[in-house]
Amino acid sequence: ADFKGKVDPDWCPGCGDFGVLAAVQKALVELQIPKHEVATISGIGCSSNFPGFIDTYGMHTLHGRSLPVASGMKLANHAMTVLVTGGDGDGFGIGAGHFMHTMRRNIDLTYLVMDNQIYGLTTGQTSPTSRPGMKTKSMPFGNLEAPVNPISLALAAGATFVARGFSADQKHLTELIKRGIEHKGFSFIDIFSPCVTYNHDNTFQWFRPRVKKLEDNPAYDPTDWTGAMEKSLLWGEEIPIGLFFERTDVPTLHEAEPVLKPGPLVQQEIRIPADVAKSFIDELM
Ligand code: SF4
Question: Best mutation site among 48, 53, 195, 199 for ligand 1, i.e. most ligand atoms within 8 A of its Cβ?
Fold first, then answer.
């Protein structure tokens, strides 16, 4: 299985999202997960077209609503590997509330945000992660707002796996995605995925000399939450990528929920009295 979708991506040539798609497909192949056990759920935005370009089950949902749909899917059938894909506007703007609550529930999803620090699909407006001073169509005199820091936000909300990748570093990103999928609980991977058409500040060339892998420092301990929070605040000449934080001692929601303990809901017997089931079906007919 190569997970190649039936439709070719319609992203602009050179868009960072191509690298993320390739890394996800490679990670799934290397983990040898059967296609019928994977679902890819997205919101709205350039990167949210992702489920159309990968051969898994999938759903392109509403703007900012990918996480609730994915949560429902995971709880109905927690035997599935559920990936959630989207952009910074979708995830940290309109979807910010869902982002917080899915993390604190530790639902076993892998959330991949293609963070290009701009709204690409709507042709270049300031997004929640746009840097201060950046000139866009919606802020022609420069961004006046402080950007969201997705890594520190995820740490503060209790995410049990927090990482950052770079679309141009395929090997590193593929390994991060594999670890995220294997992690039991909510895995969040923020991925620098440059928008080559509308973001002329945070380009591949801008990121390349700045990104530094946490894994290259043997003293870095990804089980140390305080150390991870400190690293998350770095921005400028040095921007860390890699696994910031992981803990494995928190049960996932489906492990903690008594109704789900016997197994995925889709494999459980329907245990409602026959007359109740009949009246329910009659009502639907
Ligand atoms: Fe990628 Fe930007 Fe083009 Fe959207 S507008 S496809 S984010 S390069």
Answer: 195
